[in-house]
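Sample A.
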Amino acid sequence: MENFVVTFARGFGSGGKEIASILAKELGIHCYENRILTLASQMSGLDEKLFQEVNEKMRTSGGFSNFMKGLPRSKSYISRNEKFASDDKLFEYQSKIIENLAEQESCVIVGKCADYVLKGRPNVVSVYIEAPRAFCVQRTIEHMGVTKEVANATITQTDKFRADYYKYYTHGNYWTNPVNYDLTLNSEKVGIEGCVKLIEQYLIIKGFITQEMIKED
């Protein structure tokens, strides 16, 4: 069976990252998010000679995915109080990394305009997770240990950053447009586990997995 990729876009606090992580675990594949940015950040500052050295390390470290697994996670690449500022070089490297992953393995990729970068590939399923504001606020309070006011501000600022980022790098498309995605799910109505199950069933319908491939706890 050929490689497949599931991309995730998500509203802050909707549980999209958790859904992506659970899906990857149950399918026995990797979930990539911040390590993509870590490597892209390193590459974007390298001269040609150093870039070739990085490529050589990737070839000799047991494959591209093994190289990615060895990278540290980027802890806070989005400053919640900063406006979006474009970095075309960074996005160029990031896109190359996403394309490389899609060619080499089945995986889950969170954010990074991955649905747009991999647009048109028959082995890609794109998912958008959203939920009502009150649900996202409550989840943010519980997961970050912040006040309701801080949760609201964080959601507003982060979603604005993501919308501006997506619009810039997709040349005017908007992040919440449902036609960008195979599936758009409301995590409050469907539930976190329910979203995972629906995505798995869609992957079965598409012929990417079988029921027997799902590893449930």
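Sample B.
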Amino acid sequence: MPFMPWSDELVLGIDSIDKQHRWLVDTTNRLHDELAFRYPKQEELEKILEGLMEYAINHFIVEEDLFNRYGYPEERVHRARHDEFSRYVLQLLLKCERGEQVSDEVLEFLRTWLVKHILTEDKAYVPFLKEKGVK
């Protein structure tokens, strides 16, 4: 069983965003698998964290573009949550690039943040965007 299983509960019903969320969950599982080794490969950790950072930023741009285009009233608050996540992952990446250990704590942060973000903050915008015709 994966560290962070994908479930129908995480599905928003907006295809492009669901695919991106699925990728983020799968990448968190890849990070878990690498950290499970007694001696995780530093270069693999960096690669996973770089991918996570890049993909998350691109995913946030997609969401924020929809918010801006349709005038989502909670855009500012939602964007702040995205910024928090990006700062955290960037700090992890920098730590890893300095050769410092990345602990299992990062996995719990990612799982908790992603699930909470998707189930509460992202699900909150779904009715608004669907009303605007976003699928």
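B remarks: Helices lie at 15-35, 42-70, 75-97, 105-131. The CA atoms of residues 10 and 119 lie 6 Å apart.
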